[in-house]
Amino acid sequence: MSPTLASPPLPSSSPAEKLSLAVVAAGLLALVLALTDGELGRRQTWFYAALALVSGGTLAWSWVKYGGHPAGVQQNNLWLRASTGRGAVAWVTGLVLTGFYVVLYWYSGNDGQGNFGPLNNLVHALDGFSQWLRARPADQWFLYGTFYTLAILLMGGRAIWKYRHSRYQVVRTASVMFFQLGFAYIIPGLLQFFQQPEFYFSYFWPLKYDYLFPGTVTSLVQNGGLGVFMVFWGAVMSLVATPVLTYFFGKRWYCSWVCGCGGLAETAGDPYRHLSDKSRTAWRWEVRLIYTILGIIIVLTALLWVHFATGNTLLGEAGTVAAQWYGFAIGAVFSGVIGVGFYPLMGSRVWCRFGCPMAAYLGLLQKHFSRFRISTNGAQCISCGNCSNVCEMGIDVQQYAQRGEPIIRASCVGCGMCSTACPRGVLNLENGPKEGRYQGSQLIHADSLRILS
User: Fold this and answer.
1) What range(s) does the 4Fe-4S ferredoxin-type domain occupy (predicted)?
2) How far are the Cα atoms of 13, 265, 287 from residue 353, in angstroms, in the given order?
3) Above 80 in pLDDT, residue 248?
4) CATH tag, 371-451
């Protein structure tokens, strides 16, 4: 009988790490108390105490964990930890996240009397802040937006500490934090404060699919000049700016610098990026699903406009029902429940990889029309596997690096983590001439714009 090799023991956390994590745990306990306390004053106290404790504890832990150690991508023991190796902690985290999304989407709607079901206490704890920002009481979506934005900001701080040696990663992380806080949280709230339509300037069709639906367009236009500008902004960004920006910079300009879905994946989802399935089977499912969803939303949008042009007689109620089912299956179940709830089990870009129609649209442009590529130098590759391990989109980067082939994949979001993790400088993100784009790095034109990470 051959002896079995036992896994080396995990290094113990320092007292400072344990203290900061205890502060986070106290914050989560305070959140539970806010959820269950029936007295408004105490509930608000517990709620804001929870936000303060979780925020302070997370930032302190990030500083202790990464600030006190040499800079660099540290992937030690990821598969051995219960939290990042699909262990018990990961399953519990996944169940909690999934349960939260289920409750949020289907059990926390306003009953007409200001009751938001299981999340009622947390929603009303935000009434004062919501009145200040939006001039209206909070609802379940304002609660969700607050949690979502806070997660990106706090875990973005962690990512900046962790990758502080890479200017590219620091600037990219700061960018998604800025767009989420400003364009997806503050500006929509201020628009409501001034009695204008809620609008997210950082989301475009086909991701924000209803922004080019005839009903949404008509409603916005009826709101006057600002509404007309919103329609113009959405159409131009979706149909003109997106192809142009993708031609020059690849899909990274949006997926890794602007998009809130990508922002959450790159910050809160960073501990799980190595979990992405890199098998051929996963790639086949990726292609089948994401382009099917893109095709569905294109056809649905076109049919709704034909229906609108024929005086709403072509489809009857079928168009509305189809849009509702798309919103339920794709906008709620896929992007929310699965896309975020499954972070600890399937990696951080499940939605972006398998379901996002915007990623599919950008990916087609990137693969066939863009100047963007990741060049490789096979002679320097030592086959350490760091690049493949950090790829959240399921690309086996090492295979390209070993052969010295440029990486031109529709799924690549240009996060640059493969380049950041490479100890030999084998991988470089480039925007260069399209000529010779598919050739090895030794033939790439010298005048390519190289962005080192």
Assistant:
1) 372-400, 404-432
2) 34, 11, 9
3) yes
4) 3.30.70.20
